[in-house]
Amino acid sequence: MSEFLIVGAGVIGLMTARLLAQSGAKVKLIERGQSAREASWAGGGIVSPLYPWRYQDEITALALWSQSSYVHLAQELLAETGCDPELRQKGMLMINVADEADALAWAKRFHRPLTKVDAEFIYRTEPHLAPGFESAIWMPEVASIRNPRLGQALRKSAQLNPNITLCEESEVIGFTTFGERVNGVKTAHGEHKADEVILAGGAWSGQLLAQLGLELPVEPVRGQMMVFKAVPGVVERVVMLDGRYVIPRSDGRVLVGSTLEHVGFDKSTTEDASRALFDTATRIVPELADYEVEHHWAGLRPGSPNGVPFIGAVPGWKGLHLNTGHYRNGLVLAPASTRLLADLLLERSPVIDPDAYSPAGRLKAR
Q1: Which N-terminal residues, if any, form the signal peptide (predicted)?
Q2: What is the pLDDT of residue 365?
Q3: H or E stretch at 187
């Protein structure tokens, strides 16, 4: 029997397993498909909330801790696995921001290097942007990471770790219980027992928790994105305009995203979104119209109220814990939220006050 069993091997599940295994614990990861192939793969990889001043303080606390840890994590994973997550620390430009005063006040409050810049700075920094932009918010410390490569590195790290057992293509269909304790899970291939069970199933977490008579306010929110097969130098850093963004990769590819759609568990793409994303990309960088659209895809975010994740013990059920509901910021918040849960599970002093993320008082009986 494992000490810890984690349902869901996305970035959250993989990072949680890595932290617990580093403490010497035995961990089993169970994934319904392939590791890090759902929201962890589908997102853009910006290591910051979009317009961070518009989020609650609970999001900021997790994000600031995570941002500083990604440099070390990327280096460790490259050395450990040979897979480079491609962390790019080039900053983020946010064009024509309406609530600049709020942004500047947030930066002062949290001591962040955020400034208002003019057209001269914009075009000196990104000369290929469309003409006519007059002002922007500049955040020089914001990084981006190639999230599919991050997922590959974390998966390989798990496979190399003797304390971790990774079970893919094994969908969890329910929990096993003994009295008021959850002591394992049921899959189509049999049962797995553990001292402690962690549910990190993203948008699918609510379906499982419902079997225990609890309602988790996490719903799938579809996001569609596309990627242009451009060349290095067309755009060098994350640029945002009217809530959407372009993200460059080291090989020249440029991602554009994303939509926000409440359509259930439908991961299909649409022509309307394709046209809208193409329009966004070329309004920011007109030159992208000269390059091939290589891929258009969709993923499902685990949408939660105000985007504040559920991290901690499930009330009424001993041995069951949550780490889910990160909405648009799963990758952004992953290092901090997984460290917080690991601290709670290993009875260490938590790096962040856990109360705001606790499932207690936030779940309802069905």
Answers
A1: none
A2: 77
A3: strand 181-187
User: Are residues 168 and 5 in contact, defined by beta-carbon separation less than 8 angstroms?
Assistant: no
Model pLDDT for residues 332-359, shown as the tens digit of each residue: 999 999 999 999 999 999 999 999 999 9
162 backbone dihedrals φ, ψ, rounded to 5°: -65, -15
Tell me the HSE value of 68 on the side-chain side, using a 13 A CA sphere. Answer: 6
Beta bridge partners of 5: 28, 197
Amino acid at 355: D
| Strand 92-95 with 115-118, pairing | unpaired
Please indicate, yes or no, whether the overall pTM of this predicted structure exceeds 0.70: yes
Angle formed at CA 270 by CA 265 and CA 271, multiple of 5 degrees: 175
Which residue type does 118 have?
D
Report d(CA 100, CA 54) in Å as an integer.
11
* Contact assessment for residue 53 and residue 108, using Cβ atoms and an 8 Å cutoff: no
Sequence-distant (≥ 6) Cβ neighbours of residue 179 within 8 angstroms: none
β-pairing, 181-187 vs 172-178, is antiparallel
CB 65 within 8 A of CB 55: no
CA distance 324 to 169: 20
How far apart CA 41 and CA 35 sit, in angstroms, is 9
pLDDT tens-place string over residues 213-238: 999 999 999 999 999 999 999 999 99
Strands of 242-340 (E only): list them. 244-248, 254-257, 293-303, 310-313, 320-324
Cα dihedral: 170, 199, 51, 95 (round 10): 0
